[in-house]
Amino acid sequence: MKTTLNRELFDATCYDNLPRVRALLAQGADVNAKCDIVDLTPLHCAVDNGHAEIAKLLLRKGAKVNVTTRTGRTPLHIAALHGYQDVVELLLGHAAEVNAVDQNRATPLKLAEANRHTDVAELLRRLGGC
């Protein structure tokens, strides 16, 4: 039962279905469940798709802000990679590690710079990113 709820939570998160995410969490879906071979969590999925409201809800419900995938990527890495400034700000407001390093030694700042997300890069730099 729990596995089904968790799978549905991933789907609802990826497809930006906030009411369904709320319902699944109320039914006991695990906010920190890891899915697939790279260890994505619902927060990674929300961030990867730029779903700030769902990310905010997941964080309020106890999602781990610095959780890593198998490749060492945190939600902040993913938000910076895509240039989602609102999501970057949300994660930083929940104590995301600004200088987290993935398996390729990339930080969120390096990913933002590599993808020419100058506003996100400047924000990360101001907060001590390197």
Description:
The chain has 130 residues and is an all-alpha fold. It has one domain (2-126): Ankyrin repeat-containing domain (Serine Threonine Protein Phosphatase 5, Tetratricopeptide repeat), CATH 1.25.40.20. 55% of the residues lie in helices and 0% in strands. It contains eight helices and no strands. Helix 5 (75-82) packs antiparallel against helix 6 (85-93) and helix 7 packs antiparallel against helix 8. It is globular.
Features:
130 residues; mainly alpha; Serine Threonine Protein Phosphatase 5, Tetratricopeptide repeat; 0% strand
Shape: globular
The first-level CATH class name: Mainly Alpha
Mean pLDDT rating:
96
Sequence stretches where pLDDT stays below 50 over 5 or more residues: none
Structurally, the number of domains stands at: 1
Q: What is the terminal-to-terminal distance? A: 43 Å
Secondary structure category: mainly alpha
